[in-house]
Amino acid sequence: MPHFWDGLLVTLQVLAIGSVISFVLGLVWALLMRVPSRWVTWPVGTVTEFVRNTPLLVQLFFLFYVMPEWGLTFSALTTGVIGIGLHYSTYTMQVYRAGIEAVPVGQWEAATALNLPMRRTWTAVILPQAVRRVVPALGNYVIAMLKDTPILMAITVLEMLGEAQLFARETFQFTEPLTVIGVAFIVISYLASLALRALERRLVH
């Protein structure tokens, strides 16, 4: 499989950048949903519900084939990264919301008693505690994103499975490349889970 490493690199790029997008954007959605204004919460809630309840494949097709008609054209890889990051941000949003709501009320009261500015309350008191609580759940979505990367073949992104299929069609050998790809997914998932457990222990202590 001469192009296996190319496919592996693409898969890791999608996973890494897509995870960052989903984590950051998910936090933004969660914070916006706490704004005391329906003019903010209603459109954010509508958009995130729509994205969460439509298939990732449909969203990728929309970004790749429809958006260029509106003047927004990206490469297949960029479209895939944006699509998978946006899709999973609507799930990480719910994780962050749960983490924020799990912070004891006394922490809010203590910040108020100390007369901390709202920005300081969030950055120094609330978010650090909330993030510690949600790392395991966020890690689950990293693994889910990894398993969804083969969907990007639909918009011509040759990640690991795409390269394996290309090799199989050229050589008429299917068992070896697909076995290698299956093992690669298992190894990456395992290493990612170990890294997330280490991060969780570091945050807890």
UniProtKB/TrEMBL annotation:
The chain crosses the membrane at residues 12-32, 70-88, 178-199. Residues 8-196 form the ABC transmembrane type-1 domain. InterPro entries: AA_ABC_transptr_permease_3TM, ArtM/GltK/GlnP/TcyL/YhdX-like, Ectoine_EhuD, MetI-like, MetI-like_sf. The keyword NAD does not apply. Coiled coil: none annotated. The keyword Membrane applies. It is a multi-pass membrane protein. Pfam families: BPD_transp_1. Keywords: Amino-acid transport, Cell membrane, Membrane, Transmembrane, Transmembrane helix, Transport. It is found in: Cell membrane. Belongs to the binding-protein-dependent transport system permease family. This is Ectoine/hydroxyectoine ABC transporter permease subunit EhuD. It comes from Streptomyces tunisiensis.
